[in-house]
Amino acid sequence: MKAFALTALTAMLVAPVAVFAAETTIKVPVNKLAAPPVVDGKADEWGKEGWQKVLVKPALEHDEQNNTGELEVSVKTGVAGDRFFMVASWPDEGEDRTYKTWKWSGNKYKRGKERDDMLAIRFHMDGEYDKCMLAPNTYRVDVWVWSAGRSDLAGFAEDFVHLISTKPLEESAEYTLPGTNTMVYIQKPRDEGNPMYEYTQPTSKEGEDYPGVKLTNAGSGSLMDVTAKGVWANGKWTVELSRKLDTGHKDDVSFLPARTIKSALAVFNKGYGEHKSTTAELVLDFSGAM
Questions:
Q1: Per-residue pLDDT averaged across 211-231, rounded?
Q2: What's the rounded Cα separation, in Å, for the pair 67 and 139?
Q3: 3 has pLDDT over 50
Q4: How far apart, in whole angstroms, are the C-alpha atoms of residue 174 and residue 238?
Q5: Tens-place pLDDT, residues 126-158
Q6: What whole-number distance in Å separates Cα of residue 59 and Cα of residue 57?
Q7: Among 14-23, 87-96, 155-164, the least confident range
Q8: CA separation for the pair 155, 67 (Å, rounded)
Q9: Residue by residue, what is the 3-state secondary structure of 170-210?
């Protein structure tokens, strides 16, 4: 087990704790689509009607490293054939597609600090769900993470399972809940399979700049379930994602049978970790989709 036992103050910095405490859940209808949209980040097939606007707010109050702030995300979801589709669009003044580019300095490369824009979506799998990861509950969520300068290169979103528990877990981070002696353990394993990209380590000079990320061209398995593509244009991102309703993989949420599923979105503007803006709890309603 990786022990990262934190003080109450530090624990407050790793997840949204009370920002949405007074807000209710938001119902998001999942519609039956006449035809499957092309996952190209253009959203041409989604039409102008039926978009749902959801507000994201900083996960941490007074977070000076949050570049996203408070903004509206327009969302639509649907089912066509055996696949679930989602599109999300939000304002962003810049297209951030580079990730820690190596810069030649003197006689060696130094790793840059640039970060790409990201969108993350979590879906309740089982257990006693809570929007906050630092809650005295035990539950699992399926997490899709699209990154503009990494996963988008391959046309996919990365796929994870987050397991939150009050009981010790192997290879987990551990936190002390603020004002209590209760411990929370969090695992964040990637789904099974080979990764779609890897971080680089240049060994000799190959230009003034050297990409911080490269495709492996060997991505496989459950890790490659979620197709995704993002396009930045006219001051906003549009990201489309799709996955089979039921992949048959134990590390994926199944959207079958049709029901409601708790969810949430997070937007990162050159952000990482806790430096994000999140929605209140979303409830995806599949009752009209099948």
A1: 97
A2: 30
A3: no
A4: 35
A5: 999 988 777 889 999 999 999 999 999 999 999
A6: 6
A7: 14-23
A8: 25
A9: CCCEEEECCCCCCEEEEECCECCCCCCEEECCCCCCCCCEE
Evaluate whether 270 touches 116 at the Cβ level (below 8 Å): yes
Q: Looking at residues 54-80, what average pLDDT do you find?
A: 94
The CA-based dihedral angle spanning residues 229, 238, 113, 271, taken in that order and rounded to the nearest 10 degrees: -120
DSSP 3-state assignment of 154?
A: helix
In the numeric block, which tokens belong to residue 2? 């990786």
Residue 74 β-bridge partners: 53, 89
User: Fold for domain 8-285?
Assistant: Immunoglobulin-like (2.60.40)
Q: What sign does the dihedral 14-267-169-260 (CA atoms) show?
A: positive
**pTM, rounded to two decimals:** 0.90
Provide the residue ranges of all domains of the chain, joining segments of one domain with +: 8-285
Quote the CA–CA distance of 87 and 43 in Å, as a whole number.
7
CA dist 61 → 86, 159, 164, 274, 278 (Å): 29, 28, 23, 11, 12
Q: Nearest-CA neighbor of 146 among 76, 77, 197?
A: 197
